[in-house]
Design brief:
single chain; mainly beta; 8-stranded mixed beta sheet; 5-stranded antiparallel beta sheet; globular; binds 2-acetamido-2-deoxy-beta-D-glucopyranose; CBD9-like protein; Cellobiose_DH-like_cyt; signal
C-alpha cells in the first residue's frame, strides 16, 4: 500500500477534469471565539458536498524569507477519520499537521514524510493547542493551534523553504474515513488516505496585528516569552556565568 498524492484524488472523486477547475476561494473569517482573523478555505472532499474548513492566521509583522508562527484552525465533519494538512503542498518533505477527533476534543500530531509511507512524528514543527476553539461534538471536530515551524522547513533539496506571509501558498490536504488506531496518542499510526486535494491559500487575508496578544489571550505562549523563560532557567541553574545582559 503506497502513500501517494496520486491515487484517489479529489478530482477523481468529484468526477471533474482537474482539481484546479474546482472553486478555489479563500475568504476572510473573523473568529468570534478566539479573536483571530483567518484566511479560510473550504475543501469539498466527497460527493455529499460536505467540506473541511482550513483557516490560517499570521502575524502582520511576519517577514518574507524568515521564520514566523502561524495559527491553524480546522473544522472537519465527524466522518473524517484523520486529516492531514501539507504546508508545502505535497506528501513528502514538508510539515504535515495531522488531526483527528478524540472524545469531546481533538488531537494534533506533527509529522513529516520523506517517503510514501506512514509519516513519522516531526519535532521541527511544534504545536500549542488552544483550549478555546478545540472541541468536538456530534457532527464536527475543531482544532485551533499555534504552530512554530510550519511556515519554514527543509525541502527535498535540503535548502530552507519559507511560506510567503503576504501572498499565496500552495497547500494540500489528505483525509481518510478510518480513525487512527490509538486516537488518544499524537504518535498513533493511521492508515493511508482516501482522498487528497490542493489549493492556493492567500495569506495576505490572514493578517493579525495583535497576533501575540491573541496567542496569550487564548492560553498560548509567544515564542519570545518561551525563549526568555528558558534563559531565566539557565541563569538560575548558573550555566550562564552571571546575570549581565540578561533580564
Ligand atoms: C459542532 O461543532 C462545529 C465546529 O465547532 C460547529 O460549527 C457546529 O455549530 C457545532 N454543532 C452544534 C450542534 O453545536
Amino acid at each position: 500500500m503506497r502513500w501517494t498524492f496520486g491515487l484517489g484524488s479529489l478530482a477523481a472523486v468529484l468526477g471533474v477534469a482537474s482539481a484546479s477547475s474546482l472553486a478555489n476561494t479563500v475568504t476572510v473569517y473573523n473568529d468570534p471565539e478566539t479573536g483571530f482573523t483567518f484566511s479560510q478555505y473550504q475543501a469539498t472532499y466527497s460527493l455529499s458536498g460536505k467540506y473541511i474548513t482550513f483557516r490560517i492566521a499570521v502575524p502582520s509583522d511576519a517577514q518574507q524569507n524568515s521564520q514566523y508562527d502561524a495559527v491553524i484552525q480546522i473544522v472537519a465533519p465527524s466522518e473524517v477519520g484523520w486529516l492531514g494538512l501539507a504546508w508545502g503542498g505535497s506528501m513528502t518533505y514538508n510539515p504535515l499537521t495531522v488531526s483527528w477527533a478524540n472524545g469531546g476534543t481533538a488531537v494534533v500530531s506533527s509529522r513529516y514524510a520523506t517517503g510514501h509511507v506512514l509519516p513519522p512524528t516531526y519535532s521541527g514543527a511544534t504545536y500549542e493547542v488552544f483550549k478555546t476553539g478545540t472541541k468536538s461534538n456530534g457532527t464536527h471536530y475543531q482544532v485551533t493551534a499555534k504552530c512554530s515551524g510550519c511556515t519554514s522547513y527543509a525541502g527535498s533539496s535540503g535548502s530552507q523553504r519559507y511560506l510567503n506571509p503576504k501572498g499565496g501558498n500552495r497547500l494540500a490536504f489528505a483525509y481518510a474515513t478510518q480513525k487512527p488506531s490509538n486516537p488518544s496518542s499524537a504518535s498513533s499510526s493511521f492508515n493511508v488516505h482516501d482522498v487528497f486535494g490542493y489549493w492556493t491559500h492567500d495569506f495576505s487575508l490572514a493578517q493579525n496585528p495583535s497576533f501575540s496578544n491573541l496567542v496569550t489571550k487564548n492560553g498560548g505562549h509567544t515564542t519570545s516569552s518561551v525563549a526568555s523563560k528558558l534563559r531565566k532557567k539557565r541563569i538560575v541553574a548558573g550555566e550562564d556565568g552571571g546575570l549581565a545582559g540578561e533580564e
